[in-house]
Amino acid sequence: MNYVEETVEKYDDRQFKGHFRLSRKTTTDLIDLFNQSDFNPKYSSGRPNVSAKKTVLFSLWYLGNRNSFREVSDRFGVAIGTAHGCLTRFLNFLMRIRDEHIVWPNEQQRLEISRMFTRNNGFPGAIGFIDGSHIEIPKPDKNQDSYINRKGYHSLLLQGVVDHNKKFIDVFCGEPGSLHDARLLRRSALYATISDNPDFIGEYYLLGDSAYSNLDWIVTPYPDTEFLSENQKIFNQRLSSKRVVVKNAFGLLKGRFRRLKGLENLKLDLCYQLI
């Protein structure tokens, strides 16, 4: 019942990050930001409000582990209905601040990233890898078949662009799992922005796999046919080997926030926010 007040305080920094998936300092900063936001209720006409600290720690635990909602609620000594409200407010808070932290690089940053791509990957002018990932969700109430992906389970698609350091610089989520990566891209804000304003990416480009069309700003492999030249085969092999960066980024994301390995008993809009 006093898990936050007593047990958590006894964790060393390694134990704390192991349980809550963020460092103690980052978590403290997050608690302070949440506490100052209008998502943290300041007044209550009935039972005492759940503190900002408990709300954030509860939510991080839920996102970072696969325990049931009831198990996590019991651990934190919070009724299920109250816990659901805590999670919802925290996710709404994250949605508000996400554009401050998932940021497309400016001109100077694009230049620096491009230099790193040239040095590390041998692709002058590249500033990111683009890929999609499936997040398993419960069967939706409506349009169920459209959410069944090629592997046979219901999912939402997450499109991500990462730089050379596996840092996400753009994300797009919410489309059903049956959608092809190329169509997912065309529905994204990134595609609309670059189509309307090519200067958004400038002279640079992204690296994608064969699921994407070869665009002015996305470089993909040569079509795998028997007529490929040796140089084209080498290019495809090099591109494929370097794209492990974005695969690793998605792997690290799902490894840190293990809830993303499969969402259960959540409505579709909450699944989208959580992702």
Question: What can you see in these coordinates?
Answer:
It is a single chain. The chain is α/β, with parallel strands linked by helices and 275 residues long. The chain has helices spanning 3-10, 13-20, 24-36, 52-64, 69-76, 80-97, 107-121, 181-186, 189-196, 230-242, 244-256, 268-274, and strands at residues 126-136, 155-162, 168-176, 205-207, 218-219. Strands 3-2-1-4-5 form a five-stranded mixed sheet. It is elongated, with a radius of gyration of 21 Å.
What's the helix-strand series? HHHHHHHEEEHHEEHHH
Strand portion, in percent? 5-15%
Q: Largest beta sheet, briefly?
A: 5 strands, mixed
Low-confidence stretches: none
Coarse structural class: alpha/beta
Shape descriptor reads elongated
Quote the average pLDDT: 94
Major beta sheet, strand line-up: 3-2-1-4-5
- If helices are DSSP runs of H or I spanning 4 or more residues, what is the number of helices? 12
> What percent of residues adopt helix (DSSP H or I)?
40-55%
Number of extended strands:
5
Terminal CA distance = 29 Å
The Rg value, from CA coordinates, equals 21 Å
Oligomer: single chain
List the helices and strands and how they pair.
Blueprint: H1 3-10, H2 13-20, H3 24-36, H4 52-64, H5 69-76, H6 80-97, H7 107-121, E1 126-136, E2 155-162, E3 168-176, H8 181-186, H9 189-196, E4 205-207, E5 218-219, H10 230-242, H11 244-256, H12 268-274
Parallel strand pairs: 1-4, 4-5
Antiparallel strand pairs: 1-2, 2-3
Helix pairs in contact: 3-4, 4-5, 4-6
